[in-house]
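Can anyone check this?
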Amino acid sequence: MKKPYLILILFILLVIIGTTYLSLALFGSIFAISTNNPLFCDFVHGEEYRDSCYMQLFHSTRDPHLCEKMTTQRFIDICWFDLVRLGVITDPSICSKISGYKDACYREFGERTNDLEYCKKIKSPITRQFCVTDIAIKLKDLSVCKEAEIDKDLCYYDFALTMRNSSICKKIETYPDFSLDCLALTLKNESYCRKIESGVGRDVCFAILAILTDDHSKCDEIHPEDWYIKKERCHELLNLSKECTHCLDETNPRKMFDCLQTGCPNILE
């Protein structure tokens, strides 16, 4: 074979190889997802783009090995925590590998096992509060509220509302308005709403009570200048509660109220 032809053949082969590699680098994610093969992700340029390819494949396979291939901490955290949340991973030591979702990871195991030791590992006071409170409610054990350096009064508040137990409301000492709100919602008695000093707290109390009792007249108790909840919005929420019945399944009236505001898209402009 003459030398010019050999050079031409080598050039064509290099073009084919180069084009194939470039195609894999640019469209690796598409090939990986369409063939369900992570090997195509290996050709994707850039750590974040490569990890994004692994993540897209992970969403369809939930394969833990894909988490091990990732090098970007953000994707690693999401990958491992997703497996924890789905119950695929049952070993709590995985939380030490997770950076951004470490507190959420410990909370997941705490609530799954009803073990306060996991709650105590949580650094965020708010997340620790939720963890301990949820365990107290699940166990129906009010004494749990005194554990893990949390605000026990807030725990009492959520416990009382969820259990609809007005006697617990009287244990709330630090926040008088919370105690009154608690009594109003557990007893369905609007007179306690009127005693609340905070204008916003008072009006929200009336709005939740209106939904609990299916009574539009309670919406009219809301101050016309309130910036948080308007009378019109209260009436709107009450009407929508008949459509968004899944929100009414919430045992905690506060969570029911939040659900109506966020779980039914058509109430928000």
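Reply from J.R.: I decoded it. The chain has a mean pLDDT of 85.
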